[in-house]
Structures are given as C-alpha cells and as structure tokens.
Write a structure and sequence with these properties.
The protein folds into two domains: about 35 residues, no CATH class; about 80 residues, SWIB/MDM2 domain (MDM2, Orthogonal Bundle), CATH 1.10.245. The longest helix has 15 residues. With about 130 residues, it is mainly α. The termini are far apart. The protein contains eight helices and four strands.
Length: about 130
C-alpha cells in the first residue's frame, strides 16, 4: 500500500481502487439512483426514441405492413428489406439495385428500380409528422 501511495501520490480515487474500496462518488450515485433498472425496462425505454419511436404512417405503408396504423422508421426499413429478400428483388448483377414489384412501386412513387441508399429517402413521405 505504501508503494502505491508513492506512485499515485495520495489521489483518493486511484487509492480506493488499490485498497479494494469503492470511491465515495460511486456509492453516492448508486444510492441516488434508487432501485435497479432491468435490461428489459432499459430496452423498452430506448425503443421509444429517435428512429425507433412509432409514428403514424400513410395508408400505403399501413397496407404494406398489414394494417399497422403506426410503426418506427427502423421497423419499416426492416419490413421492406425482409420483403426484398423473400421475393428475390435484389438485382444479381448489381446488389445495390432493387427491382420493385407492385407492392414496392406503391411505396416508392411508381419507380421500377431503386438504389438501396434511396429506400429511407423514398419512405420519408409515408411518415406523418405530428405537430
């Protein structure tokens, strides 16, 4: 312990780790937090932010999703990619290009082919902004 004190020159934070005790600030923050939050509760709280937040969608996207009145942006992109992969709509010669079927044409403004990077941009008008 004396050697550690010489090395760390009495810094309480570093000495607490050597001595096996938690620093005072760590114990205070743990008690201030109250009850522990489970992983599922933390995951549910995270889902409701940003692109994971469910928002109202247009009628066309709702029909594509099976009647869901609202969905997250990430969920919509995932649903579209599942449809693309299940129906083999990716161009084998150029994997970045998607050949649209009738369902996708209704979402992508009637385009026959779209690039994979265009999907989020073409989906944007289908999410209704709440004011």
């Amino acid at each position: 312990m004396a050697a550690a004190a010489r090395v760390f020159r009495g810094c309480r934070f570093l000495m607490a780790a050597v001595g096996g005790k938690r620093p005072a600030s760590a114990s205070a923050s743990a008690s201030a937090a109250g009850a522990k939050v489970t992983k599922t509760e933390a995951a549910q709280a995270k889902e409701k932010r940003g692109i994971m937040q469910p928002v109202p969608v247009s009628d066309a996207l709702s029909r594509f999703a099976g009647g869901a009145p609202e969905m997250s942006r990430a969920g919509a992109v995932k649903l579209i990619w599942n449809h693309i992969k299940a129906n083999g709509l990716q161009n084998p010669a150029n994997k970045r290009e998607i050949n649209c079927d009738d369902k996708l044409k209704s979402l992508f403004a009637g385009k026959d082919k779209v690039g994979m990077m265009e999907i989020a941009k073409l989906l944007s008008p289908h999410f209704i902004k709440a004011n």
